[in-house]
Design goal:
Length: about 140
Amino acid sequence: IVQLEALRTIWTILAFSGRCISEFMSHPDGINSIIKAMKNHRLSEQIQECGLGIMSCIATIQKYAIRLARSFGGSVMSQLVDSLSYPCKSGSIQILTLNALFRISSAFISASSLGIFVDRMHQYFAQIKKEKMNH
């Protein structure tokens, strides 16, 4: 419950105050903590929604959207791809995921770096396909 409320609070702050995104991104453990919470609470739809909402807010700023895709050891993009197949009745997880992916891809288009984004997406989909074949 504590992690859920913390994520919900962060999401609300970032959604209503764009300047707080810069401050959040200045802390190296910020995104890693979000990814860790999402992985540790894989079955909590609310935590997944909050984590994705946070990533979508961050991705509204081009430089941070590109940083999300390029850094953190690929954990952000991996989490986004994993979220596409999350079993959610309302579809809210997939909507938030697609929103974040749209913002990230738009940032790459604006930065004329779309090839990097497409290459990363191909890598993650190939990894998922490989993992499904191994199971």
